[in-house]
Amino acid sequence: MNRENAIWTVPNFLSLSRLFLLIPILITLGRGQRAYALLWIVAAIATDFWDGYFARRLNQRSNLGRVLDPLIDKVDALAVSILLVLSPLYPLPVWFFIFLLVREVTLLVCSFSVIVRKRGVMESNRAGKNSAFATAVTLFFYAMQLPAVGAIMVWVAFILTLYSSWIYFRLFLQRVKESRANIKNDETMNG
């Protein structure tokens, strides 16, 4: 079996478990139980680390994993952001949530269009991982009710996310250009 098309792998299981860990994270944050939330957040962070480790170590990199891991990261970040914005317990700036929402929806639409055009999967890159990390740290500080540090981190996350968005947009345009070139080549060969 081609490992690239594998579905049931250790890394994919760990990624999916992170989605289910979102439930107790949201419940404990919603109740203001920061200590319990911290335990669930640490468990989610561990699965995020271990899925990548096992993908490389066990040679279980897959196309599903390339999509699933960052998608679950986005779902988790947006879900926690929604809670932090809507709850009176947490002072996450609304503008930052809107920025994240627009960015993530745009990135998902672009990625989906690349997949549909059969131009492969737009994988995470270092800039994207850095912005995701900075965003997670920002959300963590707001969730732990440390808004002074969160206020600094929100700008770090904003700048890194803008930069990574620019990188992904350039990659998307490159894939669209390649797709158009392939269509023209096919028309020339068949015409």
Question: Could you please describe the fold and organization of this structure?
Answer:
The protein is mostly helical and 191 residues long. The protein has a single domain (3-190), classed as Four Helix Bundle (Hemerythrin (Met), subunit A) (Up-down Bundle), CATH 1.20.120. The longest helix is centred in the C-terminal third of the chain and has 44 residues, at 147-190. The radius of gyration is 19 Å and the shape is globular. It has helices at residues 10-30, 34-57, 63-86, 94-116, 126-143, 147-190.
Explain the layout of strands and helices.
Blueprint: H1 10-30, H2 34-57, H3 63-86, H4 94-116, H5 126-143, H6 147-190
Helix pairs in contact: 1-2, 1-3, 3-4, 3-5, 4-6, 5-6
Strand content: under 5%
How many extended strands?
A: 0
Distance between the termini: 37 Å
Global mean pLDDT = 87
Q: Which architecture would the CATH scheme give at its second level? A: Up-down Bundle
Total of domains: 1
Strand count, sense and barrel status of the largest sheet are: none
CATH topology assignment: Four Helix Bundle (Hemerythrin (Met), subunit A)
Task: List the secondary-structure elements in sequence, H or E.
Answer: HHHHHH
In short:
The protein is 81% helix and 0% strand.
Brief descriptors of the model:
81% helix; Four Helix Bundle (Hemerythrin (Met), subunit A); mainly alpha; 191 residues
